Amino acid sequence: MTAPKSPGEDEVARQILLRHKLVRFAGQFYIRETDRWLALDRDAEVKFIFGAIRELDFVPTERDQRKVSVALIARCHHVSTVPAWLGTPHPNPVIACNNGLVDIKTRALLPHTDDYFTLNVLPYDYDPEVAEPAELLRFLRSIWGEDPESIASFQEMLGYILTPETWMQVIFQLVGKTRSGKGTIGRLIVGLLGSDNTCSPSLQAITSRFGLMTALGKLVMLISETRTDRLLGKPAMTDMLLRISGEDSIDVDRKGILPWQGRLTTRIVILSNEPLDLPDDASALSGRLIIFHLPRSFLGREDHELDAKLASERGAILKWAIEGFGRVQSHRQRIRQPTTGLPLLEMTRIQASPLAGFIEEACELNPDFTMEKDALYSAYAGYMSFENKHPLSRTAFFTKLYSYDVTSHKGAWVRGSGKKLRQPSVVRGIRLRDHDASNDAEVIPMPLTTSVARTKA
User: Fold this and answer.
1) What is the pLDDT of residue 5?
2) How many domains does the chain contain in total?
3) pLDDT for position 4
4) Which long-range contacts (CB under 8 A, 24 or more apart) does 226-234 make?
5) Could you report the average pLDDT of every consecutive run of 10 residues in the chain (457 residues)?
6) Which one of 322, 349, 376 terminates a domain?
7) Which pLDDT score is estimated for 437?
8) What is the rounded CA–CA span in Å between residue 182 and residue 270?
């Protein structure tokens, strides 16, 4: 007896979607299995569709499979970012755990639902009655015993990276000497979130062609050991860190599959022995950073059982972290920069932008100030020589000054000794600290956004 004829790919796709929950994200099908969403690569997709057609008592051909695949793409839910609600959204953000969804605001445990599409499920249960994480608090006090502000901010950071939230647009950095606890914190983050929910590219890798493949759908990007003194392409690294943390749309090339374009929801955590040394003349990167300083070294005093102790407290740490994040979530406040990290943040800012250092140390900013461009650039070149750094070109220098509301203006034509002479070009909005204001030029705005300067009478 021959099998019944297929009713057509569109009807087959409709019937498959009645039996199976499918979502299309980043060019792949995801299927709901118990309380997880599982990705179907190309081979798994073909196997699933053949099996699903057979469930309908049809004998599929390869051509049928291809047609049904196209029909499923047309009919199933498409999401552009994760997580996503496929039906009516829950009013508060949630964290998916083994035993359900945790409402971040109310701390209530909700049942898993097929209407919540997420790739990030924590690999342990949530227990609202668990005691505080004693081992973690003991460890943190050994690092920051005299700095409760850092412990409070660290608690808020852990809560933030456990959630799917990205609205803070921040980058976290933990800076400390060898055996200061950075590695333990890195392993704690991976254990708390689950290895499937984190990625660990190098700083240089994130600018390579396929370097962001592993970041797609991850909660945290953990970057370790960021020595950049011998790395090429540092401006591209700065740009990529800003684009990821700034929720920009990014093109992600992937091996064996079409590129994906969208917003990466991963949060960046950097572990390093020293501050970042990346170019950032506009100080945008330092404005995103929250730096934790780990001042002590436990070299020779390591607790080799600490990782296991912390792993046994994952449920307690989860509850503690959510409580911390609740402090900033309720008022949509940015996590506070610990005071002990401010010197490192300032060092990062000055190191990233010698221009910022020159302006801070040698200049004054005011909309009414003017001075000659030649004198300003000469002072800048001398400052860079003293700092043993290569100066920007003249054009680049005055272009970057625009971010400080400093504008350039050509000098006016004046008559002197029977012929026309041009006054020196000037900048407005800045002057050197030892500048003689009595020789300032007055800038007169002209049509079409051009200006000329004439000497004061």
Assistant:
1) 55
2) 3
3) 54
4) 226/270, 226/272, 226/274, 226/276, 227/272, 227/273, 227/274, 228/203, 228/276, 228/277, 228/278, 229/277, 231/203, 231/204, 233/204, 233/207, 234/277, 234/278, 234/279
5) 66 95 96 94 94 89 91 96 94 95 96 96 96 97 94 97 95 95 96 97 93 95 77 87 96 92 96 92 90 93 94 97 93 93 93 89 95 95 91 93 91 72 89 73 41 35
6) 349
7) 60
8) 9
Whether residues 51 and 154 share a domain: the answer is no
Q: Is the peptide bond before 83 cis (omega within 30 degrees of 0)?
A: yes
Whether residue 157 sits in one domain with residue 57: no
Bridge pairing between strands 22-25 and 77-79: parallel
Residue 219, domain member (yes or no): yes
Q: What is the largest CA-CA distance in the chain?
A: 111
Q: Based on the fold, state whether residues 194 and 276 are members of the same structural domain.
A: yes
Please give the single-letter amino acid code of residue 418: G
Q: Are 180 and 301 in contact (CB under 8 A)?
A: no
What pLDDT is attached to residue 455?
A: 35
Handedness of CA 137, 139, 145, 150 (dihedral sign): negative
Q: What stretches of 104-149 adopt beta strand conformation (E)?
A: 109-110, 116-117
- Out of 329, 349, 369, pick the residue that ends a domain: 349
Identify the pLDDT of residue 354. Answer: 87
One domain, residues 325 and 411: no
Q: Are residues 300 and 363 in the same domain?
A: no
Same domain, 45 and 166: no
Identify the residue whose tokens are 């249960």.
125
Domain range holding 216?
139-349
